[in-house]
Amino acid sequence: MNKLFELFSKVFSRVSSYTKRISVETFVKKHRGLA
To answer: What is the pLDDT of residues 1-35, one digit of tens each?
Structure first.
């Protein structure tokens, strides 16, 4: 159970950082397109 939770937290942090980077990139692209 504890190992599974550790693995899940690692994957979750990796996924959240990845999606954050993607959203920032898309936001910058949209902002540049509007500007």
So the answer is: 799 999 999 999 999 999 999 999 999 999 888 76
Spatial separation of the C-alpha atoms in residues 5 and 30, rounded to whole Å: 37
- Global confidence as pTM: 0.55
Specify the amino acid at residue 7. Answer: L
What residues contact 4, with CB distance under 8 A and at least 6 apart?
none
- Any idea how long the chain is? 35
**3-class DSSP string for 2-24:** HHHHHHHHHHHHHHHHHHHHHHH
